[in-house]
Structures are given as C-alpha cells and as structure tokens.
C-alpha cells in the first residue's frame, strides 16, 4: 500500500512537470528552426547581387568626371560616385585605365571589365555593344570658340568667298545682263548708241546697265524709246535699293563677326571649320547634320588649334569642355552659352551583365543622397 501511494505521488509530480517539459522542448525546436532558417536565407539588397570578389572597373581620363592624379590615384565626379556605391555596399574594386572612350567601351563589351565609369555618353551605337545603367548626369554638347579678335581682312575674304555672297553677286550680275539685253531690244533700231552689230549693241547696253546699277553713269547716253526709258527708271530705283541693302548686309555681317566672333551658335557650324574629339559621341551629331569636322585625339589638341586659328569652333560635351577651358585655356578660349543635342552619362557593363539591376538600384540611391549633391557642387558649382 505504501508503495502504491509513492507511485501516485510520483505520477502527480510528473503530470505537473509535463507541460513545462513540453514547452521547453517546443522552444528549443523553434529556436533551432529559426537559426537554421536564418542561415539559409539569402542576403537582401544590391550587395547580394555583386560577387564576393574584387571588381575590375575600367575608366579613362575625362576631367572633371575622372582624373588621374600624379600619385596614380583617381578622383572626379564619376569616380566619387562609384566609390560612394562601393563603400555603402562593401564592394572591393580596382581601377584600370583605358586611353579613349572607344577603347573603354570595346574592352567592356569584351568582358575585360565588370563595370566602366567615366564620362561615357549613352548612345544607340554604344548600346548595341554594352549595357548601360540608369543615367547619373544629364548634359549636352557645347561649343568652344577663340577669344582672339578676328582679323577684318580675313573676314572680308571669308565673306566674299562665302556661298551667300557669291549667290547675291551672281544674282546682281545676272539681272544687270537681263536689263542690258532688254534695253538693246528696245533701242537697237532707234538709238545709234545701242545699234550696230549684235555684239556691239549688246556690249554697249550691258555696260550702260552696269553703270546704272553701280551709279557710275555719266548720263551722256541713255535710252530714247518710251519702253526703254520706263525700264531704265525701274532699274535705277531697283538697283539703288538693291545695292544699299547688299552693302548694309555685308557691313553688318563683318561688324557682327568682329564684335561677336565667327561662331555664335549651332546654326553657324556648317559654314566654319569645326573640330571634334575622335571616337566621341559628338561625331554622330556632326555627321547627321552634315557638318564637316576635323578630328583630334585629345581635346587639348583641338583647343590649341582653335587658339592658333586653324579651326573656328570645337564641339564636345559641355561640362568637360567648360572644365578644361577653365583650367588651361581661360585667357584665349571661351565656351558659348548654348547647350544642344541632350545626352546622358551612365555606367557601362558587358551585355547581359548580372550586375545591371544591382548597379541601377545602388546608383539611384546614390544620386538621391546629399553626398552626391555635394560632389556636384564641389566640382561644378552646381546646386541640385
């Protein structure tokens, strides 16, 4: 009996402890499952899509977006942007330099680089060979011109050899010949001054027409018929007005060029000597507009030719052009206050890159930050 009672007491104690034991076992199982789930869950965010290795990033010198310092370090707007992205997402990378944008794009297309950052314009031609991120900077083309005073004699020669001048002069000469021929038809049988053989009569009448046009006639001869005199009066009035307008136009053009220069906007480019950077997106615009251009391997070479008078304008990405002029050519070259052919800069990647989405997300986050605004202000003085 005593043993039975002991067993009853033990059973009651066990029944009281059983819920606690079950709860403890459930808690241990839940914690273990949560830990296992945490170990298996993938990381989230852009960093998860980048490889856990050192990225190879291509670049080229394009001040102020990418600039190589004497000690080999890189600075610039694009470089600072990429460093910001890399720092925020814990990415390791090394920069490799290319000599030109064209070679940078080609190397990226081959897969030599995981990414390329500089001042790479997003264009249809480049989009065919590489993928681009979202744009991080929107700009356009600009025009650099010489600040050296234009030679008046050079402009006279340029004006007189221009297509517009030759067309106007040809039209005046043609009208003068036509009036002379009409005077000869009206006067050849009634005025001995315009009579005789056809060659003699036509020569005299055309000479008289030219004298009237230039207001150099002495008045010793003239038409005698009613039709001839009516035509002469009309021609005198028309020629006076035409010569006055023609002279005023030429004088105005020469004066304007002396004061403002040869190039004042995009519309002036077809009639002047234009320079551009070889392999740049600028060439696409110039070719589409059928503007003849001379290409240079470096922007500095083109600006030097602009200073010497070998070319009249240099067309390139406006922020890069403005930066370089301000740093090295501020006393002799200026950038016009015009922006055309809108374009955007982006980060280039090999076609089908698995980093594209991650780069887009990281880039969009970066350019919305205060740090990016400060970077633009530090390099360009822009407040966005």
TrEMBL record:
<dbReference type="InterPro" id="IPR001320">
    <property type="entry name" value="Iontro_rcpt_C"/>
</dbReference>
<keyword id="KW-0325">Glycoprotein</keyword>
<feature type="transmembrane region" description="Helical">
    <location>
        <begin position="164"/>
        <end position="186"/>
    </location>
</feature>
<feature type="transmembrane region" description="Helical">
    <location>
        <begin position="230"/>
        <end position="250"/>
    </location>
</feature>
<dbReference type="Pfam" id="PF00060">
    <property type="entry name" value="Lig_chan"/>
</dbReference>
<feature type="signal peptide">
    <location>
        <begin position="1"/>
        <end position="32"/>
    </location>
</feature>
<keyword id="KW-0812">Transmembrane</keyword>
<keyword id="KW-0675">Receptor</keyword>
<feature type="domain" description="Solute-binding protein family 3/N-terminal">
    <location>
        <begin position="54"/>
        <end position="383"/>
    </location>
</feature>
<keyword id="KW-0406">Ion transport</keyword>
<keyword id="KW-0813">Transport</keyword>
<keyword id="KW-0407">Ion channel</keyword>
<dbReference type="InterPro" id="IPR001638">
    <property type="entry name" value="Solute-binding_3/MltF_N"/>
</dbReference>
<protein>
    <submittedName>
        <fullName>Transporter substrate-binding domain-containing protein</fullName>
    </submittedName>
</protein>
<keyword id="KW-1133">Transmembrane helix</keyword>
<feature type="domain" description="Ionotropic glutamate receptor C-terminal">
    <location>
        <begin position="54"/>
        <end position="379"/>
    </location>
</feature>
<dbReference type="InterPro" id="IPR015683">
    <property type="entry name" value="Ionotropic_Glu_rcpt"/>
</dbReference>
<dbReference type="Pfam" id="PF00497">
    <property type="entry name" value="SBP_bac_3"/>
</dbReference>
<keyword id="KW-0472">Membrane</keyword>
<keyword id="KW-0732">Signal</keyword>
